[in-house]
Amino acid sequence: MSNVAIRDLKITLSGNTVIESLNLDVKAGEFVVLLGPSGCGKSTLLHSIAGLIDTSGGQIEIGGRDMTWADPKDRGIALVFQSYALYPTMDVEANMSFGLRISGTPKAEIARRVARASDMLQLGPLLKRKPANLSGGQRQRVAIGRAIVREADVMLFDEPLSNLDAKLRTELRRELKQLHKQLGATMIYVTHDQVEAMTLAQRMAVMKGGVVQQFDTPDNIYSRPANLFVATFLGSPGMNLFKGSLSAQGGQVMFRNEHLTLDVSAYPYAQAAVDGQACVLGVRPEDIDIGNRDGASSAATGTVTLIEAMGAHRVVWLDLQGTPVAGIVQDGLVVEGEQPMAFAIRSQRISLFDAASEQRL
């Protein structure tokens, strides 16, 4: 196992700075996910770790050694691409062993590694098939197996599941998680899919514009987002946002706007609350009490505009004088469209952000 340390990384492509002054520490044996929208620089960062893109500044260390200018073959990494990139004229076994054969690995060692990888990925019955005779999920397993046989200390994944349908993505996600437990290798995984990120990562780096906005565990990022971008990028439906201001008097802090009043005295402020400070209140849909069944005194009333049946729960959308509010209902509460419906905010898991800087208060 090897750690990966990135120091003050800068990458410029065609005169455009894609990444500047980026720092990231991935522990040995850790599963880290790089998450962000298209164009945020996550794949560029991954490819620079792999040595496929030259850096314009900074340093990349792998296993404590400076690999900034090392050739890809000398970095001790294995890379799985979004496209399977299999050789169509070779069978599964030959595809998986090709790199080892080229590097002169003894036949007995090749056989051992291929057998181990095919057993992990359930590819044994498919070893003599050509890629054309495999499903999309099976092809991606072969591509992952080709990386496993290298027995690299660091494995890099560039959106490997994005070409698969939803059911296959779910299955392979689970297999990748199990694979990490078996191999113990350091894994860095790029995706724009928040479900993949939340389920796979031990820690994840949320990126925007080539900058890491927050690097933490999935639970901490979801419950304590560092800024408004992170807060709204994660979650489906997204976090409810209410603009307002703080009223801090006599040890009590209240959030107020035209339609809502909420006691936020117990909120864990990074700095003391400032009276009159403009802010944004963020509330996850699961923390909206539709129907105000807890009897909160700070309830408000909106109009039901949409009900989305999601199987195990329903997402109820309310209109609060022009502000959309999403809440999750997991029981038999009767909710009808175009009807007024009271709701309250469960204040234990709220987030507050400064209106100007958009950073967490």
Automatic annotation (TrEMBL):
PROSITE patterns: ABC_TRANSPORTER_1 (PS00211), ABC_TRANSPORTER_2 (PS50893). Residues 4-234 form the ABC transporter domain. It holds the Pfam family ABC_tran. Keywords: ATP-binding, Cell membrane, Membrane, Nucleotide-binding, Transport. The keyword ATP-binding applies. SUPFAM superfamilies: MOP-like (SSF50331), P-loop containing nucleoside triphosphate hydrolases (SSF52540). One of its GO terms (molecular function) is ABC-type transporter activity. It comes from the Bacteria. The keyword Ribosomal protein does not apply. This is ATP-binding cassette domain-containing protein.
